[in-house]
């Protein structure tokens, strides 16, 4: 064993008459200040290989004992252990049984009776120099552990790596090892996983839910919801027949990332409006709690709760997060429902003993037969009252509670009144009021028709009288489609009695054109029957058909008759039965409207187009008048000066393939005008009797005065609105908004979209970000992803949490990219195309900036002239910061001495910084050096080494969880395992192997292969040849 020790050495400079510090000018070694500093190439430099770059600290040697660590001295310019102290792992302490005066002298850190000994619950190491914690057994309680003298120090003392060392009850000394929740102890030596078959939400209440360590169902996790820990299907899965099946995939929704919502206002419309369907959440406009997101049109609709049963009530509001935790989501329950705990789950409920009133779902009612808590508690709106003595909700007299005591009901039976009905039990009034005068009370909740000239209708809603029978008073109501005539119920016109005389059946009749007088009338069909079935002037023709009267014809819908144009009506009953584009006259005739003429039986347009005046191709139309032209082609149409056809007036022009006339723009005339008579994008300017069609703001009249066009301006992209911008001279904001939308503005004689509020859409318009609505957090479980493959394989999309407070991973744009809500794509940037071509520039969001390690000099990006080198001078200037940013990340500038040093987690090797490794790293005098390598590494002070925490083992310079360790994600299990059922398990292509950890315990890890010999083709061929040779 070496007797010397090389660790952190504090060196002090030796005074000199002329002191020259590091990098100062020198001629020889004499003036160079500090130990191990020599004059090299005219400068004071450290004598290699060591260099602690601050002031005069150099070297790998000592000058005085003060330079050395505790319990060592400087001898021969080397630090060695003091007499009586043993060197081990770079430290000096006294071995076991050595004489001591205090605990700090001993390797065991325990001095008893002036001798170094092992503390309680510790035992000697094999070298008999130091001590190690004694491994203790596992118990279910402190009392058992204490009686067996098996108390622990910390987790590393437990014989099973999965067990933890926990305190005993209050006022007890010492701690004991216990298996974690979800495990049971076996032979006081092992923690065995408890596998649960209960898959929540359960539709029944069970007496013993037991513990849950893992789940029998695939894709299920143990999670505590409400009061119990049971198995739940993971996010993106749902329960079906006690299995977890992949949930039907919702249409893909892509969210903007956190940087995106900070750059853009996605919530303006939510703030400006007063709409209860939307709220602002995570700076996005989202569906409010109680509302559901509709992906097809990005709107929100109120959730409609549906009663399931007395256990699940109005549905489960427990949700499993992306971290496999169970949470209650109140937003899943529309008002007035709330989310409450029920054994193994949370449910949407009105509260215990209450439900949504079936006749008014906006309020909660108390169950029939259940006592109310106060006078403010409501009973069912219909047919129930609150008993002021018992405070319970009760059905009113004669009604019975049904539908799990949620409704009071009084029904009409399909049977007539007979035994065992008891009409004397209650007054028949409750039945006659509800079902008619012939209804009688039979039993609680049931009425029946008397059976004497009374029977229930098909829907069992009223007691009706029979048809065609002389009725005694009081009479029951006549059946539907019948009327009381005298003392009998008679079917209305168009209907006939059924064989049992209990209902009126509609006649099945056909309608034909007039064919002459009625024929073959052997039945009772009447003209009134025909007129009840068809519109217009209709008469009977045969037993099963009707015909139009002689002055009419069958209309286009085949459901009635229209009068012929010019025919005198035979009856004034149907004066409204004129064909389209015609009306009735005082002469009891149908006449074509203005601008229409008769063609056969129909009224058609007199003209289908306007012509130029004196157009030789125009056909003269007989009887054409100016009012016809105005009716057909607008207020700027008239009749030709030299013919009988329509033209546009001189201050107008034809549009839509000569089918209409528009006034010319800026033409002041006395003609009447409406916006329909003006071109698009105009208003009407009125001055006295004159008026003109004028262009709206931002639109300009074309040379031919026929169009209002936007200015000839281009859209320069999206920019922030600068309040210090120079006013545009040739272009106005109105020009920009008219052409590109409300969020456009003018800057530097160019139109831009206000990038904080809008983006350039595919149509080249400025479209508002806040136009787009997203699902609220209460629905994120429906749109959650587990990997990027769930996000449709679209570029620049990540599956991640929206922010640190999010419960679910969702598909969102990766950092550095921005969402185009219209195309549902993530763009890498929104810079001008010239940015990518510029040397050493790159686009970040909207800005074209210099790449890392470069700085802008005018229009160029220039690399920093400095290059960081270990132990060489540096400072905090901007150019040095650019230089360090371009470095590989292992160096930083020590501002105290303005020299480059290795970052925490790195060490100097020759002239480079290399990452520290857990193996052979001295840690006692280096604060947090182990955690800088891996957060689950700790410094074992006895061995002066970095060890992994209990339940972890070292692999490839990392601390990896052992098989069976609790986890929330695959990342926590390291690259060699997956997180399944909240426990780290091997990948399918791996097998479990056992190893002994640093604490002397057997732990399980995953190794490649499946535990059998694999024969390559070459090896198989070798065996065949060998066998052939030796036979």
UniProtKB/TrEMBL annotation:
Coiled coil: none
Cleaved signal peptide residues: 1-19
Top-level taxonomic group: Eukaryota
Keywords linked to the UniProt accession: Signal
InterPro entries, per the entry: EGF, Growth_fac_rcpt_cys_sf
Record domain EGF-like: where: 177-191
This protein's name: EGF-like domain-containing protein
Organism annotation: Rotaria magnacalcarata
Organism ancestry: Eukaryota, Metazoa, Spiralia, Gnathifera, Rotifera
